[in-house]
Amino acid sequence: MNDPLFSRDGLSLDRLRSFMALAEAGSIAKAAPDRLSRQAQISRQIGELEVFFGTELTMRRGKTLALSPAGERLATLVRQQFEDLRDFHREQHQQPKTFRIGAGASLLEWLVIPALKDIRQTLRGASLHLEVMRSRELVEAVREGSLDFAVVREDALSEEQRLKASLRLTSLSFHLCAARHLVRTSTKHGLAMPQDWRYLPWAVLSGGGQFDAKVRGILEAACPGLTPAVECTSLLQMKEMVIRGVCAGILPSLGMKGLAEAGVVSREFEPLKDYGRPLALHWNDRQMRRRGVGEAIIKEMVKKLRSN
């Protein structure tokens, strides 16, 4: 059989490994830091792959290299094949597979980690790798195969993804939370009315995301000229400051556990009452079929996540 893949030189596992080193690291320098000879080898081997496939796999972006559209496609294919080979090797040695689960930092802490023991059992004792990313990044990582599962906002998924490769986990509500000593007892409504918010030292997020912009807009409209006391980078940080009585903040329902016991007063944040953000478990359907993860296993994972 005259197979063009094997009838001429230029394609090898070692060359593909070098190509994936670039794809995963983002640059040749990062793929082999402080190893100039290895950097030269990676560059040469990628050039050989480009000759073999007859297309450019990288393109210049400023002072660095980025994958071309053809390179992105090849990276997805190679990533899948390498994962299949790893799975086969583990199966022959009766070793558990490795699965990668991604979510935002607070969702990992409040939703995924409490269910990890049950998830591992559902995935037959698998080794789990956790990754922190934003929803849009998570969806892209699942698409390209660098993540197996992701907990994301449903509105980050396309209609096709929602219907074919996701299951809803929960819907979030949002609550204004403050230590009891920060709430003015002389106010008539406690935390309910905007005129009561101006007296609170507020913590807000600084990441520039949708939720951050929404909360800032509400506070600025209700309390013109209000300056946040603290800007933080995660809801985990905000919850800790709320518990310590440093600031007030808007926290999702998943993060409410333990607040009452810590002397924190809370009530649903009325301006966000209709801002419910359903969360879903998202996966790559083709990748799950290849890795032997059927519908029953995914549904059991969702059940475990919902129960924690």
Structure in words:
The strands form 4 sheets. This protein has a 5-stranded mixed sheet with strand order 4-3-5-12-6, sandwiched between helices. A 3-stranded antiparallel sheet has the order 10-7-11, with helices on one face. A two-stranded antiparallel sheet has the order 1-2. The chain has helices at residues 13-25, 28-31, 36-53, 69-92, 105-112, 116-122, 135-144, 159-164, 194-197, 210-222, 235-243, 285-290, 295-306; strands at residues 58-61, 64-67, 98-103, 127-132, 149-153, 166-172, 174-179, 203-205, 230-232, 249-252, 264-268, 277-283. It is elongated. The protein has 308 residues and is α/β, with parallel strands linked by helices. The model has no long low-confidence stretch (mean pLDDT 90). Helix 1 (13-25) packs across helix 4 (69-92). The longest helix has 24 residues, at 69-92. The chain folds into 3 domains: 13-70, Orthogonal Bundle (Arc Repressor Mutant, subunit A); 96-171 and 277-306, D-Maltodextrin-Binding Protein, domain 2, CATH 3.40.190; 174-272, D-Maltodextrin-Binding Protein, domain 2 (3-Layer(aba) Sandwich), CATH 3.40.190.10.
